[in-house]
Write a structure and sequence with these properties.
By secondary structure, this protein is mostly helical. Helix content is about 65%, strand content about 0%. Helix 1 crosses helix 2. The N and C termini lie far apart (about 65 Å). The mean pLDDT is about 95.
């Protein structure tokens, strides 16, 4: 009974939007509800799964049920097996659609969802927020079950946000067979779509797509896309890319820079690549000497420190 009382109190506190004294807060992070949600995320023992179940059967209030699903979703992250998410799936499929929509987002916290059926259906939803949540959840399901649907969505979708969620789901599901279907989206006029496609291609089959990475490092106008292309080349590149990378890093340090890229800048990836595959190349040796001397002040402080560790005197 003590544990049941605790979960009931926790659920109550998760709904409180004021501080402990009932006063309005300037930041949501100062509210009782926010702190209670952080507390709920720390529950790790499996016995809480059944205690939450008991509390669920005692309430019909949709906000309370949303909080209970939130607790189950984080228990699914901390406990072995699928008991917590099995509870979520059982109740999710037995409640009205209106209530389902309010609970759907909690499944996005679950690392693995063993039954993709309801989310495959909801990936056709007309309402964007529902569709996006469903697509995100498909990325946490068995790729053998959801792969065909994700590839279909990738092939037919023209909506920018839909594509972004589809790509994230493909990445999360490690759906490597989708790699060829990403290539057409590298022509997107949206920077985040091009950048994410390059990132995923690098993770799936980087050596096969080196020519694509080269093209975007040389031709793309977006610094974000170039960053992803340089990262991919740093990971998969061969001596064939040395001339291109050297040209790019020379351009980067040819003038003072305004924007920082943490924790690893495009320049750092480029230098890492050159150091890895062409440390004996005369042109590379000469340029590395320049960057240690005449170009050194054009590096950010964190880049200087990293370079000093990579290339000690």
């Amino acid at each position: 009974m003590e544990h049941i009382d605790y979960i009931q109190d926790l659920v109550y506190r998760m709904s409180v939007k004021t501080d402990e004294h009932g006063q309005a807060v300037r930041s949501s992070g100062d509210s009782v509800g926010w702190k209670a949600r952080k507390e709920a995320q720390q529950l790790k023992e499996e016995h809480w799964i059944d205690i939450v179940d008991t509390v669920w059967t005692q309430t019909t209030h949709v906000d309370d049920r949303k909080h209970l699903f939130f607790i189950w979703s984080h228990l699914a992250r901390h406990t072995q097996g699928t008991r917590a998410v099995d509870k979520m799936l059982l109740y999710f499929q037995s409640i009205p659609p209106r209530e389902q929509m309010m609970l759907l987002h909690t499944f996005t916290y679950v690392p693995f969802v063993p039954d993709a059926t309801p989310f495959l259906s909801l990936s056709y939803a007309k309402k964007a927020s529902v569709r996006h949540n469903a697509i995100e959840i498909l990325g946490h399901c068995d790729r053998e079950v959801v792969g065909e649907r994700l590839i279909e969505l990738l092939s037919i979708s023209k909506n920018h946000l839909d594509l972004f969620y589809i790509l994230l789901a493909i990445q999360d599901a490690n759906l490597y067979i989708a790699a060829p279907y990403l290539v057409p989206h590298l022509r997107s006029n949206k920077v985040d779509i091009r950048a994410l496609c390059i990132h995923i291609l690098s993770a799936f089959d980087g050596k096969h797509y080196l020519s694509i990475f080269e093209h975007h490092l040389a031709k793309d106008l977006s610094s974000s896309v170039k960053w992803n292309a340089m990262q991919a080349i740093a990971k998969h590149g061969t001596p064939s890319q040395v001339k291109l990378v050297l040209k790019r890093v020379k351009s980067i340090v040819s003038r003072p820079r305004a924007s920082r890229q943490h924790p690893t800048s495009e320049l750092m990836y480029g230098i890492s690549f050159l150091h890895r595959v062409a440390s004996d190349d005369p042109d590379v040796v000469k340029w590395l000497q320049e960057i240690r001397t005449t170009k050194y002040d054009n590096l950010f402080e964190y880049e200087q420190k990293w370079l000093d560790e990579l290339l000690p005197e």
